[in-house]
């Protein structure tokens, strides 16, 4: 029992760190129209508040895979926590947009260590029979953040200032640090591991080049960065297959069950991050409500999705992966269709209903896809499998946010009024996200006919 309590406390400690990062991410989304006005920037620029953060995490997660082999997990957790606190402090006093981005950089650094650390603890210390439940609890700590993030950000921004979003998270990080000092074990490590610097650099160049291009795809400079990024991506694949100790081993992609679960998981992640940008922006610009109302609208659905995570994990432990995953993706697709109709009708009541429906679906499918994917690979590949999941999770989130922000920026420039342009951009963005969810559903349905995920 004592071991179980320590495991739960360790998951909560690392989960609170990740929770804080996701909370700020979704809380800041409702402030974007205010930041655009305050700093005199456009939607493509302001989305770097999210993209910078996710980009740093996408780079840090594979690096953390190496750090977990080189250093004990407790000091890694402490470093991650302290860097996050530094980022909070910088954003609390940020007088300009550049300082705000620097703070987001340090927060991404901390979360980039804390997030894989949480799943590392679950996969290495939780018994297989309870892994679904523990993954659900771990996901709960991060997925509940979107439930309160928009309201939290909207309330503070409307009544005080967006700077207060960072102030009130400092005590959460202190609590996380105290729990972690008590509960996180000092695990033995392989000190002979060496860092593949070339692999890390090529991954960073690939991620950056892709996001720069997606942010402004018509600029000649960004087209050049895309070419450089693609070359770096090819070299990264080469390093993964030829290096003695690559940051990311790609052998996990040979496992079809793992790959199917991963791609479907990424489709939901794109919906999470793309939707968290689209919906508050549409509510404020097209419907004319303030940031607080935009946040409140997101609460019911996000709460449902968060609270379903441990329930869905327990269901997977009992009946397997097929029913919660297929059912969840079907409900998600239905919810996005209704959301598109709600935006066409400009009905905030129908929008809330649609968000709740697709959140029910994601609640059943999201964490279970990761659990099923990890269960499909050998124990020796857990580190690589988890790293790929967490790296691409952050990268696809950054891509989704960048793409929908770019779509809305383009449509705003094309139409005569900001409201009309935002409405059409919202519909196009949601249409793209719906295609991803339907593709994920069909791929899982087809796969389960061949060989079931565990």
From TrEMBL:
Q: How does the record classify its membrane topology?
A: Multi-pass membrane protein
Task: Spell out the InterPro entries in the cross-references.
Answer: MFS (IPR011701), MFS_dom (IPR020846), MFS_trans_sf (IPR036259)
Top-rank lineage group of the source organism = Bacteria
Q: Is DNA damage among this UniProt entry's keywords?
A: no
Give TM segment ranges.
48-68, 75-93, 105-126, 133-152, 164-185, 197-214, 220-238, 259-283, 289-312, 324-342, 348-366, 395-415, 427-448
Q: Do the record's keywords include Nuclease?
A: no
**What name is this protein filed under?**
Fatty acid resistance protein FarB
- Predominant place of localization: membrane
* Keyword field: Membrane, Transmembrane, Transmembrane helix, Transport
Record-annotated Major facilitator superfamily (MFS) profile domain positions? 6-454
Localization in the cell: Cell membrane
């Amino acid at each position: 029992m004592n071991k179980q309590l320590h495991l739960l406390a360790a998951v909560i400690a690392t989960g609170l760190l990740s929770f804080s990062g996701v909370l700020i991410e979704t809380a800041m989304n409702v402030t974007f129209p205010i930041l655009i006005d305050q700093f005199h920037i456009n939607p493509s620029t302001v989305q770097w508040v999210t993209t910078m953060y996710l980009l740093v995490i996408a780079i840090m997660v594979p690096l953390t895979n190496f750090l977990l082999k080189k250093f004990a997990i407790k000091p890694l957790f402490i470093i991650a926590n302290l860097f996050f606190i530094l980022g909070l402090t910088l954003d609390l006093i940020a007088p300009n947009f550049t300082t705000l981005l620097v703070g987001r950089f340090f927060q991404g650094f901390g979360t980039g260590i804390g997030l894989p650390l949480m799943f590392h603890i679950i996969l290495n210390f939780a018994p297989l029979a309870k892994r679904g439940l523990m993954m659900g609890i771990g996901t709960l700590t991060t997925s509940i953040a979107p439930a309160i993030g928009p309201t939290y950000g909207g309330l503070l921004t409307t009544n005080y200032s967006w700077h207060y979003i960072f102030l009130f998270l400092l005590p959460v990080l202190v609590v996380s640090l105290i729990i972690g000092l008590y509960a996180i074990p000092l695990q033995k490590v392989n000190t002979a591991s060496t860092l593949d610097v070339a692999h890390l650099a090529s991954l960073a160049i690939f991620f950056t080049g892709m996001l720069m291009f997606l942010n402004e795809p018509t600029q000649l400079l960004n087209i050049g960065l895309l070419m450089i990024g693609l070359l770096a991506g090819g070299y990264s694949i080469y390093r993964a297959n030829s290096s003695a100790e690559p940051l990311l081993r790609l052998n996990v992609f040979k496992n079809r069950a793992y790959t199917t679960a991963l791609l479907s998981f990424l489709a939901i992640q794109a919906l999470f991050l793309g939707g968290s940008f689209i919906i508050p922006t549409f509510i404020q610009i097209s419907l004319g409500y303030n940031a607080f109302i935009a946040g409140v609208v997101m609460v019911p659905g996000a709460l449902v999705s968060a609270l379903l995570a441990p329930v869905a994990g327990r269901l997977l432990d009992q009946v397997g992966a097929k029913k919660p995953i297929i059912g969840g993706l079907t409900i998600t697709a239905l919810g996005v269709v209704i959301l598109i109709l709600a935006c066409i009708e400009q009905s905030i009541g129908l929008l809330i209903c649609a968000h709740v429906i697709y959140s029910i679906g994601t609640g059943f499918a999201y964490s279970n896809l990761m659990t099923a994917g990890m269960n499909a690979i050998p124990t020796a590949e857990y580190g690589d499998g988890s790293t790929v999941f967490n790296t691409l999770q952050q990268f696809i989130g950054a891509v989704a946010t960048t793409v929908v922000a770019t779509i809305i920026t383009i449509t705003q420039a094309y139409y005569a009024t900001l409201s009309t342009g935002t409405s059409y951009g919202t519909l196009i963005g949601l249409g793209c996200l719906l295609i991803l969810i339907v593709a994920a559903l069909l791929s899982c349905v087809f796969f389960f006919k061949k060989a079931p995920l565990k």
